[in-house]
Amino acid sequence: MVYKFFRQKLAPSLARCLLCGGTSGESGICSACTAELPLLGNGCRHCALPVAAARNSICASCLKRPPACTKITAAWQYAYPINHLIQRFKYHRDLAAGHSLIQLAARQLGPPREAPDLLTPVPLHWRRYWQRGYNQAQLIASGLGEDWRLPVALRLLRKTTSTQTQSQLNRNQRQKNLSESFAVHGQIQGAHIGLVDDVVTTGATLEAITERLLDAGAKKVSAFVLARTP
After folding, report:
1. Cα(156)–Cα(187) distance, integer angstroms
2. 52-65 b/e with 16+ CB inside 10 Å = b?
3. What is the pLDDT of residues 1-52, one digit of tens each?
4. CA–CA separation, 121 vs 136, rounded Å?
5. Alpha-carbon torsion, ordered 157, 5, 165, 127, to 10 deg
6. Rounded to whole angstroms, how far apart are CA atoms 19 and 21?
7. Residue 44: CB atoms within 10 Å
8. How buried is residue 71: exposed, middle or buried, by Cβ count under 10 Å (0-12/13-18/19+)?
9. pLDDT of amino acid 230
10. Which residues fall within 8 angstroms of residue 159, CB to CB, at 6 or more apart?
């Protein structure tokens, strides 16, 4: 329902490609620009980190310390113009850019072969939600759920503490920052949960939430994101 309203509001603004200004398709980005988007290519089969090795390989970090999250699937590398579109969506209230990213990511990411029982977004603390006006992960999760015909639990997770912005922190700092920051509200015993977010950098946020979900009884956690930083 959230995503349908979002899409209906934006329909008149999507006639022109957001990147080149040419005639656009339903996604708001023309086929020529879509073909130039920075696909992830070979990524670690656990954390999606771009690797030079063969497909389905595991990066050195995941070999050393296997993550709790079974698999992160990313649509693109966090590079131009994807990074530009995500920043417009996330920080500048450009919902047309968000619509285009969600539409294209739904095709690029799935439907997944091993579908989760439900999708749920990475939550924002209420103060940041109030400042931004929306949680971009909620809109992404709603759009993927609609396209893949999967249930979406928008309020399964809650951010219980307001932590400092993660983008300027290293992995250890992020993990310390996120400790005890999330709570699970709902029955998920034995369920495969699909976590949804916009960008994964170190994976610390997804790992912190995954641990909470597993502690609450989830059988398995996968993640779906728009982009992975190199």
Report:
1. 9
2. eeeeeebbebbeee
3. 555 555 555 555 567 899 999 988 778 999 999 999 999 888 898 999 988 7
4. 9
5. -70
6. 6
7. 22
8. middle
9. 83
10. 123, 124, 125, 126, 181, 182
> How many whole angstroms separate alpha carbon 164 and alpha carbon 178?
9
In total, the chain counts a number of residues equal to 230
Amino acid identity of residue 216, one-letter, is A
Q: How far apart are the first and last CA of the chain?
A: 34
Token couple for 203? 């994976």
The radius of gyration computed from the CA coordinates of the chain, to the nearest angstrom, equals: 17
Q: Give the dihedral of Cα atoms 166, 171, 176, 178; nearest 10 deg.
A: 50
Compute the distance between CA of residue 37 and CA of residue 8 in angstroms, rounded to an integer. Answer: 25
With a cut of 50, list the residues of the chain below it in pLDDT: none
User: Do 68 and 81 form a contact (C-beta atoms < 8 A)?
Assistant: no
Q: How many whole angstroms separate alpha carbon 147 and alpha carbon 145?
A: 6
Alpha helices of the chain — where are they, by DSSP H? 2-10, 31-35, 60-64, 82-91, 95-109, 126-132, 136-148, 171-178, 204-215
Token pair 């698999």 is at which residue? 71
**Three-state secondary structure of 153-198:** CCCCEEECCCCCCHHHCCHHHHHHHHCCCEEECCCCCCCEEEEEEE
